[in-house]
Amino acid sequence: MNYKKFFPYFSNSDITYLDNGATTQKPQSVIDAELEYYTHYCANTHRSNFGDANKATTEYEETRKYLQKFINAKDSSEIIFTKGVTEAINFIASSFAKNFKTVIISSLEHHSNIVPFHMQERTLGDGLEVVGYKDNFTFDFEEYENILQKNPNSFVSITHISNAFGTIHNIKKICELAHKYDSYVMIDGAQSLAHKKVDVQDIDCDFFAVSGHKTFAATGVGAVYIKQELLEKVEPYQTGGATIKTVTYNESTLLHSPYKFEAGTQNIAGVIGFKKALEFIDNIGYEEIEKREYRLYEYLQNELKKIDDVVLYNTTKDSISNKSFNIKGLIHDDVGILLDKQKIAIRVGHHCTMPIMEKLQIKGTIRVSLAFYNDFDDIDKFIVALKKAIKMLKD
Ligand SMILES: Cc1ncc(COP(=O)(O)O)c(C=O)c1O
User: Are 129 and 148 in contact (CB under 8 A)?
Assistant: First the structure.
């Protein structure tokens, strides 16, 4: 199936787009839904009481209900819209995690899941613990349990799928162990929903952050799932319009979740479009998405292995989308420039994961990141361009 035909970017561009880990393309249905909102019923939500305002509120809330079912949350009050995963993590870090003596992360975290904890003046060994990995970036469960044993009642914040290496963490096991030691878990799901089914009740996580723009929806939209039992324990991160029941000059009383957490006018069009992105995924189905992506990933890995001097950073089969490598003797930036000249869009650099790059004693990698609409032809074009770039740089 040619899924690219549903994404207008591909008919308007001759770029081979392999940078889906940074952001995905948007299907026409998402674009149409946003255009429809702006051209036919542009009004604010949860405030005014006229036709278009009520329609905007209804459509906005429909996305909440859809996302609730999509990730199998118990109730729609557990879904709070944010502008993305970064905001979701900052929110939970400052409204809940700040109360814990220790925060535990993995060594593969994105800066968005590190910096908010540094802002709380946590440093390695002093409020922040980092779980290492075994071969091929496999999460070190022994070390994790040791850390939990020494630091019960901690806050664990871990990525589901590594944006740099494609490693898939066993988040169900991570949550199970954390709960054994009275700890809470937030999952950074920025790289999840575009590739894998998420069931928050089955995973039994306490928080799960999702990114709209990495899931075929607009930029500036995302959400965080907060387990029902914790909704009263999490403080609002921001307050203001739309969060309150009553305000006097003396005091304010807040609404219940999700409204108390969504201060100010939200990205209404973005949220409305997000539902279309999720519907798009549902229409294809995760089984088909995973099957396609695993086949592409394997093909890409095999083709890369055939290239002289390639250094692959993760060779497990159980990884998805993001494939990082280097070419011995070449600077990743130079390769990136020559690929760009050949109309191949990939990302080179540290991928917002500087600590793991430092640990590997490299400045960065060349990363190809796939989505279900990519095909073998994209990979072939990339490999041809890569070989040409290598030849130019080595000769
Ligand atoms: C693993 C991971 N976490 C967090 C983020 C930040 O997500 P957002 O752009 O939705 O704020 C990214 C984006 O690259 C990511 O890959």
Answer: no
